[in-house]
Amino acid sequence: MRFRLTPRETSFYDMFSASADNIVTGSKLLMELLGADSASRAEIAERMRAAEHAGDDATHAIFHQLNSSFITPFDREDIYNLASCLDDIMDFMEEAVDLVVLYNIEELPKGVEQQIEVLNRAAVLTAEAMPNLRTMSNLTEYWIEVNRLENQADQIHRKLLAHLFNGKYDAIEVLKLKQIVDVLEEAADAFEHVANTVETIAVKES
């Protein structure tokens, strides 16, 4: 890590950790969604909406701190990108749950549980990685594993699309389910964007 003569603003590290912990909460709500009936799904959607609002608050707090800080722990652009990418994850997860409820989906296609398991694993890894930004240590395995998970998510997504277009679903149902699995895939992509941003930061700080 580069030697610095100026102090660093350390509250960013805590805020990034809080944002990532909130994403773990969102991923657990996605897991709950899998086995829930229609009535329970509406309640899960409300809790997910609250988690998404909490994520927005965390993101705004980071932006406010960024705009009011003379000294930052790493490049301002990287702080902005990392906060934005973390926020995107929560947005996509909340959208997926909301669509399930709005479309009144009775049964999610086989394979969605694998998508959600990948997201849950990526969420835990991301939350574990954020505190390590303080020292820029033990991060390489994190971004390698998240990139591997994103590749796995791509494969699951392609299989899901093939399943949806195999003729067993009517056209309207296909459109509804495809939108849900596409949003879950976007969440996986967003986790990779976070990992890539962390890698960029670590390279700059090395």
From TrEMBL:
Q: Which SUPFAM superfamilies match?
A: PhoU-like
Q: Which Pfam family is an annotated match for this chain, by its short name?
A: PhoU_div
What is the superkingdom listed in this entry's lineage?
Bacteria
List the InterPro entries.
Answer: PhoU-like_sf (IPR038078), Put_Phosphate_transp_reg (IPR018445), UPF0111_domain (IPR052912)
Q: Which family does it belong to?
A: Belongs to the UPF0111 family.
What is this protein identified as? DUF47 domain-containing protein
Question: What species does this protein belong to?
Answer: Streptomyces mauvecolor
